[in-house]
Design goal:
isomerase; UDP-glucose 4-epimerase activity; single chain; three-stranded mixed β-sheet; alpha/beta; 10 helices; about 20% strand; 2 domains; globular
């Protein structure tokens, strides 16, 4: 299948490109490299470009004629979205509309959309299933809700357009072959932040809140290995093409680990007792966030292969060591 992957040089996108490439798909990756890297594109051809450049989008779609689009290109940092909401609405909404316009002009009918558990805000019950109301508490989550609304309306209006929105929970880990992994300039996710602290890049790891109504007082999250998430994309794409049915599906394992549990496993894997500072809660952090992914499993046959926190952290740590050496020019 000919597949256009926007944002395919980024963390999640590059792992999906790897999985698609291993299956022999014809891939074109469209990325502005603002947070992605050309070395992370292991398969296909990379076109460096902006979604804001509608003329370039038309040229790319006209020449490549994709049968499907996987759309990862977005700004994703929650705290940054609060500081710079206009940037998030411009990139996540306006630029996505440019892509959808181009898809309509070139009769591209299949879309896999990268969404997030942030659309739920602070959920009213656990685990979180797709029927829960959407109540985002930051501009990042709000921008994704806006795009899900747009996609729903387009699908209602056009018989030949169908999509699947995948709502990710906490994505972590790295390619088990240690070829690619997270390479953000300033990581904010807990596991990556912990490993960079162990590696000496940060003086300490902050734990925000120890008085939540959880067994050890810290927040609990559902961590999914990035390779399992990549497999979910492939299965969702196959389902979409085979059935033509629009769907929304959660991506997670259905159970979680507390911040303290993650820190303990990170120290075990790295064998480094890095400094940890317990501090006040952050506004808007739900005590627990666990996915009900039964819909994804039932409809696509998805079964996770890496549902093991130590494996997730070990692959991330192996990559962290390699990437730091790459930055120093040692590899």
């Amino acid at each position: 299948m000919r597949i256009l992957v926007t944002g395919g040089a980024g963390y999640i996108g590059s792992h999906v490109v790897k999985a698609l490439g291993e299956q022999g798909h014809d891939l074109l990756i469209y990325d502005n490299l603002s947070t992605g890297h050309d070395w992370a594109v292991l398969y296909g051809r990379l076109e460096v470009g902006e979604l804001a450049d509608t003329r370039r989008l038309d040229e790319v779609l006209q020449a490549f004629r994709p049968e499907a689009v996987l759309h990862f290109a977005a700004s994703i940092q929650v705290e940054e979205s609060v500081r710079e909401p206009l940037r998030y609405y411009r990139n996540n909404v306006a630029n996505s509309l440019n892509l959808l316009d181009a898809m309509e002009r070139h009769d591209v009918r299949n879309l896999i959309y990268s969404s997030t558990a942030a659309v739920y805000g602070i959920p009213e019950r656990m685990p979180v299933d797709e029927s829960l109301p959407l109540n985002p508490i930051n501009p990042y989550g709000a921008s994704k809700v806006m795009m899900e609304t747009v996609l729903r309306d387009i699908a209602d209006a056009r018989e030949n357009f169908r999509y699947i929105a995948l709502r990710y929970f906490n994505v972590a880990g790295a390619d088990a072959g240690n070829r690619i992994g997270q390479a953000y300039a300033d990581a904010t996710h807990l596991i990556t932040r912990a490993l960079k602290t162990a590696n000496g890049q940060y003086p300490k790891l902050s734990v925000f809140g120890t008085d939540y109504p959880t067994p050890d007082g810290t927040c609990i999250r559902d961590y999914i290995h990035v390779d399992d998430l990549a497999d979910a994309h492939i299965r969702a794409l196959n389902y979409l093409v085979e059935t033509g049915k629009t769907e929304i599906m959660n991506c997670g394992y259905g159970h979680g680990f507390s911040v303290r549990e993650v820190v303990d496993v990170a120290k075990k894997v790295t064998r480094i007792d890095f400094p940890v500072e317990e501090t006040e809660r952050r506004a808007g952090d739900p005590p627990e966030l666990i996915a009900d992914s039964s819909k994804l499993r039932r409809l696509t046959g998805w079964l996770p292969r890496h549902d093991d926190l130590e494996f997730i952290i070990r692959t991330a740590w192996d990559w962290e060591l390699k990437y730091r050496s790459l930055l120093k020019g040692k590899v």
